[in-house]
Amino acid sequence: MSIDACAALVHKGDPDRFLSAMTAPPADRAPLLVLYAFNLEIARATWVAQEEMLAEMRLQFWADLISDAANGGAVPPHEVGAPLADLVRNGLPEAPLQAMIEGRRLEIRHAAPPADDLAVFSYLDATAGNLMWLAAGTLGASATAEGPVRDVAAASGLAALFLALPALMAAGRAPLPDLVPNTGDAVLARLAATALGKFRAAKAQRHLIPRTAAPALRAGWMAAPTLARARRWPGHVRANTLAPSAFQKRLRLLSLSLTGRW
After folding, report:
1. 257: which of 20, 34, 111, 172 lies 20 to 30 Å off by Cα?
2. What's the confidence (pLDDT) of residue 184?
3. Structure confidence at residue 110 (pLDDT)
4. In b/e form, how buried is each residue of 8-17, taking b as 16+ CB within 10 angstroms?
5. Alpha carbon of 25 to those of 2, 20, 156, 260: distances in Å?
6. Do residues 149 and 210 touch, judged by C-beta distance below 8 A?
7. Are residues 98 and 122 in the same domain?
8. Are the beta carbons of 132 and 152 closer than 8 angstroms?
């Protein structure tokens, strides 16, 4: 039930976020690792359980744990749940955590593709948006930073979704509007362009985000180049050739870390 357990989970299951968390000062890493471990737990809930009811039960476990912690109740022993409950008891807001869980419920209940681009970005805000906003808040971001933080998260979330799309489609998931042969590339390019617009808008408001919160936004350090490539060559998304090289990723993260940017 230690931070070390959360770190190990994130290191194995979400290595990019782990690396971004390591760019924070050591004293600031713990809440990031707990939040990222929680995100892994609820994301996995929709994959590990073979039946919809079991997946719902897994998500309800987290919803109840967070509610109990927020209301001063006892929580069951759990390597991620215990440190998450400590964060909630110390002021981490409950509502965004619950919204993250509701976003994951959509993955269970909605077999059909999202109706439109708005539905895609609504899902991304519920999941990636709330996660990045909570992470930024633990590092000192105030309410004035929420808009640009969520814009960065939208770009980061879509880039991650694009990278995972071939595997999701192979598993029978439909996280994006219908990608039929004649129009699918246009849909991908349009979504990428929208997300890049959000990222540019966030950059224009970067003065609202304290430098202390940069490691939280750095979780999406490859979002802009990944989306730019998808917008220009959307066929790479479905061909599973969109991902940058490990060298490109490490070099960009190092550059951003050394300059304090995101």
Report:
1. 34
2. 85
3. 58
4. ebbbebbebb
5. 19, 11, 22, 12
6. no
7. no
8. yes
Q: Are 38 and 62 in contact (CB under 8 A)?
A: yes
First and final CA of the chain: distance in angstroms?
31
* One domain for residues 85 and 7: yes
Residue 203's identity, in one-letter code, is K
Annotate 149-203 with three-state secondary structure: HHHHHHHHHHHHHHHHHHHHHHCCCCCCCCCCCCCHHHHHHHHHHHHHHHHHHHH
CB atoms within 10 A of CB 100: 25
Instruction: Compute how many other C-beta atoms are within 10 angstroms of the C-beta atom of residue 219.
Output: 28
CB atoms within 10 A of CB 225: 14
> Looking at the structure, do residues 99 and 117 belong to the same domain, yes or no?
no
Question: Tens of pLDDT along 37-60?
Answer: 999 999 999 887 667 889 999 999
Cα separation, 192 vs 40, whole angstroms? 24
Identify whether residues 204 and 181 lie together within a single domain.
Answer: yes
Q: pLDDT tens for residues 124-155?
A: 999 999 999 999 999 999 999 999 999 999 99
Is 38 within 8 Å of 51 (Cβ atoms)?
no
Q: What is the total count of domains within the chain? A: 2
Residues 104 and 120 in one domain: no
Q: What three-state secondary structure class fits 69? A: helix
What tokens were used for 7?
């770190």
Q: Which amino acid is at 80?
A: V
The length of the chain in residues reads: 262
Looking at residue 77, what DSSP letter applies?
A: -
Confidence category of residue 107, pLDDT binned at 50, 70, 90: confident
- Shared-domain flag, residues 142 and 228: yes
